[in-house]
Amino acid sequence: MNYDIKDINLAKKGALRIEWARNNMPVLDLIGKRFAQEKPLKGLKIAACLHVTTETAVLMEVLKLGGARLALCASNPLSTQDDVAASLVKDLKIAVFSLKGEDTQTYYQHIKLVLAINPDITMDDGADLVSTIHKAKQVSCIRYQVIGGTEETTTGVIRLRALARQGKLLYPIIAVNDAQTKYLFDNRYGTGQSTVDGIIRATNKLIAGANFVVCGYGWCGRGVALRAKGMGAQVIIVEVDPLRALEATLDGYAVMTMKEAAKQGDIFVTTTGDTRVIRREHFLLMKDGVILANAGHFNVEIDIPTLEKLGKKKRRIRDFVDEYTLRSGRRIYLLGEGRLINLAAAEGHPAQVMDMSFANQALSVEYIAKNYKKLENKVYKVPEELDRKIAELKLKSLGIRIDSLTLQQKRYLSSWEVGTQ
Amino acid sequence: MNYDIKDINLAKKGALRIEWARNNMPVLDLIGKRFAQEKPLKGLKIAACLHVTTETAVLMEVLKLGGARLALCASNPLSTQDDVAASLVKDLKIAVFSLKGEDTQTYYQHIKLVLAINPDITMDDGADLVSTIHKAKQVSCIRYQVIGGTEETTTGVIRLRALARQGKLLYPIIAVNDAQTKYLFDNRYGTGQSTVDGIIRATNKLIAGANFVVCGYGWCGRGVALRAKGMGAQVIIVEVDPLRALEATLDGYAVMTMKEAAKQGDIFVTTTGDTRVIRREHFLLMKDGVILANAGHFNVEIDIPTLEKLGKKKRRIRDFVDEYTLRSGRRIYLLGEGRLINLAAAEGHPAQVMDMSFANQALSVEYIAKNYKKLENKVYKVPEELDRKIAELKLKSLGIRIDSLTLQQKRYLSSWEVGTQ
Amino acid sequence: MNYDIKDINLAKKGALRIEWARNNMPVLDLIGKRFAQEKPLKGLKIAACLHVTTETAVLMEVLKLGGARLALCASNPLSTQDDVAASLVKDLKIAVFSLKGEDTQTYYQHIKLVLAINPDITMDDGADLVSTIHKAKQVSCIRYQVIGGTEETTTGVIRLRALARQGKLLYPIIAVNDAQTKYLFDNRYGTGQSTVDGIIRATNKLIAGANFVVCGYGWCGRGVALRAKGMGAQVIIVEVDPLRALEATLDGYAVMTMKEAAKQGDIFVTTTGDTRVIRREHFLLMKDGVILANAGHFNVEIDIPTLEKLGKKKRRIRDFVDEYTLRSGRRIYLLGEGRLINLAAAEGHPAQVMDMSFANQALSVEYIAKNYKKLENKVYKVPEELDRKIAELKLKSLGIRIDSLTLQQKRYLSSWEVGTQ
Amino acid sequence: MNYDIKDINLAKKGALRIEWARNNMPVLDLIGKRFAQEKPLKGLKIAACLHVTTETAVLMEVLKLGGARLALCASNPLSTQDDVAASLVKDLKIAVFSLKGEDTQTYYQHIKLVLAINPDITMDDGADLVSTIHKAKQVSCIRYQVIGGTEETTTGVIRLRALARQGKLLYPIIAVNDAQTKYLFDNRYGTGQSTVDGIIRATNKLIAGANFVVCGYGWCGRGVALRAKGMGAQVIIVEVDPLRALEATLDGYAVMTMKEAAKQGDIFVTTTGDTRVIRREHFLLMKDGVILANAGHFNVEIDIPTLEKLGKKKRRIRDFVDEYTLRSGRRIYLLGEGRLINLAAAEGHPAQVMDMSFANQALSVEYIAKNYKKLENKVYKVPEELDRKIAELKLKSLGIRIDSLTLQQKRYLSSWEVGTQ
């Protein structure tokens, strides 16, 4: 088996940490047990481009239990946990191609090595696998074999919808990101906690009393804002959508333009899925000592090339903290090279949250395996019944019991006759 | 002009309070100014069944400025502000039929008196107007004239969707409730604040430290939960939907069945839109001295007829507080006769929130007037551009400026090529 | 029996509301039961100057059960609940002199009528009774009889400490305000909830999204700030003490000078115990439509005389809302004539909080009765064991059980030998 | 120069991280600049037993700038940052004796090596230095030379007060912990953030939705509770003091006995300063998979010896996470061997908070140097003017301006004459 990882000897530590994650992923575990019996993925080859973390390892196990053959590369150059990669290779015999801190060239070589298995199904986190397939003329052999794919992130779904709108999408995709048990939880509670965690690990800064600017008030942004507020920050929201800006206002946050926020902020986090959200005109307005971090999928939200040009001096003052000294003498600190800070400087989303996201992945892959003949080359939602099922299993695993509607209540909801009494 | 109100002499006080509301409704005010010039409702008769509050009065003014002829009755027997009714009659010459504390019979008589104007358009808050029209054989003359209607509440929309599903809906309805500038704000921040306000006014109870049970974690429920938590309560959520139950859990609330909550709660609020949410089996488990309040549209969420039977003694101990002493000696306090507590014991939603909800009403009525020929007998959403426009106007009135996307950012969002760099 | 109240016929409503309060004051109720048996206040005459609310009525009952003879006047011209005054006179035969909305002259006449009983003990809320005694030459006959007094508020304690510092205090005072079971609860949770309640009742303004300025970050101020934040406001703190300003910052609030806050605020609340906190220079900077309210004891925190001069027009637009239109056309809304807004526009602190404050009052009066011969003319703290006892009773009444230290744990805490292991 | 550290080659990384801390400690930096000029500590030998972190390094620099000669050992076997120790030795020529993970024997040897410099002043964090001096008969030569000491923690102050009560304290101590600019900030915001940080780093657990038990509602406990709540947990407080239990209740937390909490909790944190707070009877009631962490100074709050006996199997599943499997099959996870989790698994308090704590240390040492002849063998508070000065400097460094009282306001506060107007 071909693979490219840092050090196979890290496998033991990785195995223990994967066990820890598995203990915290009861829904996925249950699915794994069923897969082991039913083998719904038998004979399928899956190419996965995901963050190589303990939670992803548990998903890989489950897919393997389901009968799939797997190859895995990283979906971000900085997010790989090398001990996990080692255990996946050694203990699970999965072909892994990923190294924490790999350069962009290696990153794309790894993608190609994963695609070399000639996958039936692709699993993406940011759509780099899909877009590589679509860009490559030479992989025309591949495209005819792929029966479907899944996509984990808001960013990836935006890219795939663009592809579909242009009529160029070559196979059906299930937008795992858009499952309620995914985006309402992973994007909000997962990104919220782990982004603040990543910033604290990188800087050991006190959040209380800081002016904490969050760019974007989507699901990720509101998660980050909520946790920053919970840690005692004064939160400022920057938005382009008037509805979200209004919600942020009534949620008790200060809302302003990026230019205004640039002058006031101490810590900045981007969560927009867009490019150059923090750029030249903003860098020049910032106070000495500000912290910049990105929680969006790609490292394009902060305009790093321009920051590189503006900085007359650059040095790494702490792990994951690069100091840029501008001509004015003011210092700007960029965290994790502008890559997903929760994966670069911390461990990404907690397993309890990924449990639901990856349950959606596993069930979506199974759905593709069973239904691919009926699917068109479009971006699909996760079927609602899967979503609801996952929520029920999760509640059960938490030991929480809820009510159900009485017959009379159901009838009342479907009638129109009874009014004011 | 025919009308039925408590006391015309209250008009002066009402007029001042309406002025106060108008000052807090800048978006509606702007629409009113345009209506006064364009007269888009000229010649139209509108029958409205809404809570007769200062905010509704401002909406009536705006519709009148637009050229409409109006008749108004209450959408709840306890929600009328008699001074507002007086001013509407005296100062605006609008036919109002509503009295705070009217009985159910009078309530429906008032509905009929309003329908007697032979309306072109109906405005509903709970769908009592629409359902009266649909029930009445004798009003067949009416149904052929109505060109469209609007509905303000979740409850009403549920009823109307049931009607539509059964193929019985006689004219098109715009579900104002489902506008984002409505339900995200009115149902959440409006109901949240005013429900807690209503409970405090009725009881002067300390919320801090109380076990505060919220039945239903929809938009209203999460508004109430958020504010109860903000006042220092320990909040318990009761739900039937697993996804919402899970959200409530991760939002930091205790989630349990109603039976379990019944034993622990000090204060209970229903926000479900369903019937008998708190019923016999729960009353019997409650602690001595509990408070029951309803924030859902109809007074059916708490099973009051059964409570009446269980109580061996009943007395009114404070305005809006009825004490039921059960056979066990335990006392249950029902607020505002189980009707919308924020309107029964307080003044309903603040004007700043109703500004958006009623801007949707005004613009939806205008939309019907202009487009009714193209509409089918279905429940429609508020057109998205209206929603967005209202959000923009509201932000502007608050003095909040936001960014817009650069060309490059727009292009990035519609591309799929650029990935990890 | 001499008395001066609004309408004796309100007694029935008052009696019910007092019963409601009593149900929420279990600690005071327990003390009342013991007093009824032990009669520790037998033969004592008590002059009380307190807010005439349902909770005060329960305290009066308890003192009467203890054997005292009582006369009561209001400690604020706007805080009297006339139905309570009626019930106290009719049902409890207590001499009450207070009318909601009385003018300042009547207010002081009432104080004199209360002092006419020639009290053994004074109970004060703001020290108006004590200071009247100390100012009056003609009451020299009185001063030799008073054996002690109590004071309920921060403001009053400040005044009494000033008296004591000048060596002029004529009899011992127990600073009930300084009991932990008083200021940590009443000033924080009580003032917090009831001030926000008073503002909402007076204005029906949406708190969410408002710029809410709190002047003073003492116990009252932080209570108000916490609740305003809990209702969704952006809170701004104005302080003169650097330590408190720093705490406010790390608690997540914006901290700035009054001049800066004057420009940004939508709603202003004073809680300083000092004079002219909001004054000419600030009025002139304010936005159109701002709301001013006071939660400090006296109506001097907002410089009303100057506001009267600045306003070229004044009218009452809602109950408890006076509109001042400045020369610039900008409008300032003053709530409750600048008097304690929680008592002017709402019902004051909830009974559950006053339960502890008034338990301190009752036990302090008993303490004076038993120990006055040992006391000097100083301001005393409430004895610690009373404080602790009240906390224990309160917890018990809430059904909350806590742990106690094991013997080993007590020993550990009193040793110094055991270190790092 | 004698020293005992892990690896001198780590100095470069340490130096950069110390620079990072210094950038975040503006108050201490200012003091350092003055010390460099005035040399107030010239000729003094200081023995310090503190957590060897970047912030402590900055304090050491300042003391050295002031003219002192220093020796430093760790105040906890797990809290040393080895790169910092290296830089202190190499770059600052300070005698450091500390290794991350040293055993208890080495720990005390290091203490003795530090005391071997024959200190004039001791700086303690937990009182291990002072108690070693007091226990040792053979160091009688030392005790006559020490002119004073400082103590950083609540735990240490409790031990020293016990010593003083027994009349055994050999020299004056300044309780730095009791400065308002210390305990209100460091114990609350510092311990709050860093404890939650430590738990997340060790476990990557989702805090949202967890039942998070905090033992002790002192300043540290309320900091931890506030941040756990801010991260979305349901917080349970265990207390022995009725007043604090009542505060916790009204702060919106569930309050219960440890036995009850043991059954419900998912994550437990001890912050009491006492011994065996979580013990046999509680271990046996816990759910499978619970997390135990300590944030109190010593590793005695969780009864680890008993846990060792109860566990039939023990293994380290992640760094800082030991899994104990009980006979029942249930697993208990102990973090950081029960030592201060914020220092064991994270970096301790943020520099911005330590800035104030260590400013108190530096100024207290200077105070001892200048005033030791006047001091008795007692535990002293930090002089109030130092406290206030530090708060002012900190505010200034944050760019926050506050008001000061007007003359009229000062006069008002010192008068008693002006009452209700």
CATH H-tier superfamily of the largest domain in chain A: Adenosylhomocysteinase-like
- The number of helical runs of chain A is 19
Shape of chain A: globular
Strands of chain A, count? 15
- Unreliable residue runs of chain A: none
CATH architecture of the largest domain in chain A: 3-Layer(aba) Sandwich
CATH class descriptor of the largest domain in chain A: Alpha Beta
Main pleated-sheet profile of chain A: 8 strands, mixed
CATH topology of the largest domain in chain A: Rossmann fold
> What is the helix content of chain A?
40-55%
How many whole angstroms does the radius of gyration of chain A measure?
22 Å
- Content of β-strand of chain A: 15-25%
Largest interface: A-B, 75 and 76 residues
Terminal CA distance of chain A: 73 Å
What value does the average pLDDT of chain A take? Answer: 95
Within the largest sheet of chain A, what's the order of strands?
Answer: 9-8-7-10-11-14-13-12
Structural class of chain A: alpha/beta
- List the quaternary state of the chains: homotetramer
User: What count of domains describes the coordinates of chain A?
Assistant: 2
Model description:
The structure is a homotetramer of 421-residue chains. Chain A has 421 residues and is of the alpha/beta class. Chain A folds into 2 domains: 8-182 and 349-397, Adenosylhomocysteinase-like (Rossmann fold, 3-Layer(aba) Sandwich), CATH 3.40.50.1480; 191-344, Rossmann fold, CATH 3.40.50.720. Chain A is 45% helix and 16% strand. Chain A has helices at residues 11-23, 26-38, 54-65, 82-90, 104-115, 128-135, 140-143, 154-165, 180-183, 186-203, 219-230, 242-250, 258-264, 280-283, 304-310, 341-344, 351-371, 384-397, 407-413; strands at 45-49, 69-73, 95-97, 121-124, 148-151, 173-175, 211-215, 234-238, 254-255, 267-270, 290-294, 311-318, 321-326, 331-335, 379-381. Chain A has an 8-stranded mixed beta sheet with strand order 9-8-7-10-11-14-13-12, with helices on both faces. Chain A has a 7-stranded parallel beta sheet with strand order 3-2-1-4-5-6-15, sandwiched between helices. In chain A, helix 3 (54-65) links the parallel strand 1 and strand 2 (69-73). In chain A, helix 2 runs parallel beside helix 3, helix 2 runs parallel beside helix 17 and helix 3 (54-65) packs parallel to helix 17. Chain A is globular, with a radius of gyration of 22 Å. The termini of chain A are far apart. The model of chain A has no long low-confidence stretch (mean pLDDT 95). Chains in contact: A-B, A-C, A-D, B-C, B-D, C-D. The interface between A and B is large, with 75 and 76 residues.
